[in-house]
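Q: Given only this backbone (188 positions), what sequence would you predict?
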């Protein structure tokens, strides 16, 4: 369960920018196929076989995206997704659910739990790549917006500090003039 760091071409490196993917899949054969495909795209991948390990790996590995199997022993993917959403402190962490279920109710249940997208298993190579890249682009855009909001908040705080300083500096001479005027009036 170590982080795999595949060799990357310059193009792959620029495209993935060291994006980390957590793959939660209990089927070893499918996990191996997904891992091979994603590593070929230049992503760093960590695979865990169940929901319990997914919850702890989310905290320690800090993935940029989670590929989450729906039907697993122990905690199912719906509950894992719900728990990740409840405790996630990251601005935005995309979750793509992998499912063999061909049922609109399962999709609705996953979306209600907090999933961002669904892929029917076994995932086709082009679809897997396109959906992963799409979710990572959305995450990157979201993070840029959050960064801009933080910068605006910082600028607003600086403006407020400046206003307080100017008001303070203006009060000092006015207070001195008032005291001097009071002293002159008192002496008359």
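A: Predicted residues:
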């Amino acid at each position: 369960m170590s982080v795999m760091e595949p060799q990357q071409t310059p193009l792959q490196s620029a495209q993935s920018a060291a994006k980390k993917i957590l793959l939660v899949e209990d089927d070893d054969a499918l996990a191996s196929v997904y891992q091979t495909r994603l590593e070929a795209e230049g992503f760093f991948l960590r695979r865990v076989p169940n929901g319990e390990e997914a919850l702890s790996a989310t905290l320690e590995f800090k993935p940029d995206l989670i590929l989450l199997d729906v039907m697993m022993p122990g905690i199912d993917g719906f509950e894992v997704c719900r728990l990740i959403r409840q405790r996630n402190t990251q601005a935005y962490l995309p979750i793509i659910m992998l499912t063999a279920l061909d049922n609109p109710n399962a999709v609705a249940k996953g979306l209600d739990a907090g999933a961002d997208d669904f892929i029917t298993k076994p995932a086709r190579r082009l679809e897997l790549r396109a959906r992963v890249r799409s979710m990572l682009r959305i995450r990157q855009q979201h993070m840029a917006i959050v960064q801009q909001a933080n910068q605006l908040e910082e600028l607003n705080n600086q403006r407020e500090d400046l206003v307080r300083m100017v008001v303070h500096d203006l009060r000092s001479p006015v207070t001195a003039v008032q005291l001097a005027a009071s002293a002159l009036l008192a002496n008359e």
